[in-house]
Amino acid sequence: MSRFGEKKKKDLPGLGREIVVWFVAALLLSHTSQVLSALTLYVDPETNQVYTTPGKNRIKLGDFEPVKHAEKTPAEAQAAEKNSQALEKRIDQKMEELRALETKLEAQQQSIQTAVEQSQPILASEPDADKTAAKEEKKWYDKIKIGGYTQFRQSAGFSGDLENLSSPGDKSIEEDTNYYIRRARLVFQGDITDHLKLYMQTEFAGGDVSVRDMYGDLFFDKKKEFRIRPGLSKIPNSFELLQSSRDRVAFERADALSTGVRNERDTGMFFYWTPEHIQKRFSFLRKGLKGSGDYGVIGLGAYTGQGINERDKNDNLHFAARVTYPFQFSNGQIFEAGVYGYTGRFVPTVAANANAGILAAPIFNKKGYRDARIGLHAILYPQPFGLQAEWNWGKSPQLSDDRTSIVSGNINGGYVQAMYKYDSPWGAWIPYFKWQKYDGAEKFADNAPFARVREIEAGLEWQIRPEVEFVVAYSHMDRTNVKNLIHVKNANLMRFQLQWNY
User: Cβ(250)–Cβ(434) under 8 Å?
Assistant: First the structure.
């Protein structure tokens, strides 16, 4: 409550006190004869103290002329004394009344304040109750989120053997191809409960609708550190295979890795362990730093091994395992390194191919051939300079040199990529350079032919907005066309891609 006389908003008690003081001053003046400016008196209504000088919280009573008592008769002096005592008594009475009024008003204000405070929880509880009711009424399908991305491409060859150029990963580079939708993904996902997450991804590119992912994450604990993932999903394998095409800067994954698990997915069951603080780190790396996502510090499991949306052909499972860790240094720089591998038996698809000089389907073992790899990866995330490298070695079914049978062959290859991330007012710019090499079978192609790849790619990604990206890149290709088995030693082309995220 503000005090009377201060430069604050006056409350009701202060206003009443001011009225009384001025009333008292009027009484004093009414009992005073002609006033001279010899003496000015002030009163403090809080202490009832009278002053001769102005000051804080002092109210002017009036101007008074000094009186010489010696000049008064005893009767006059006695009358003046009585008047003074009566006036002083009346002032005391008014001050008491003022204090009583002030106390009463304070009590009323306190009652009003208490009532307001008590009503606030009641008012606030109504929306809380609505939220609780809404939460209770929310069905599992209300928790599903929808997203995805689309990649729209065009390739322009300008020198070399473009007629025979072909890549299993990018049909846009083939002859007589202009505009091309490389990927058109639609994702449905959601945390149904604290212990269950659903994930489904469909592919619309290529004219046919297919399922890319269909799995559930079953968590053993509320921190979500331990989980199993049954269904159709990515295999715990190399960094680039687990990294989404939505985030990758290069146009396609390296052949040395994609030949092991084409389309990166298969049907199986996997176990993942990710400590809570590493979950946050993996999530941070997905936000502009080209991370792969959370596939565990440790990931392992079993899968059919015959490829995405393919049934098992030999009743023999593949087994895969991966260990990786994203180290963070004191300056904030993150470096990830790991090892991975898989083993199993793969049954290739065989068929006659006149364009490749294969007049009859090659002889093969229906129980499959040894299919095993081990690889290493290391990633220095672009903060702003980044390096990324992977290499793997192994065994794979492969077409024989005389093209009459399937045998077991060796594979060897990998890639190195450098990049730099520059954040500008016009979006993020990431120039990059990638070199890749591969010698080994393309086991998912008919007859599992041997392929040789030497390729460089230099490009620039422009993240115009979070939902729009544009990439342009030059590529020099030295690779085997696995359709007709012609080796293209020299081909040069430009590729353009517009990607929108939703």
Answer: yes
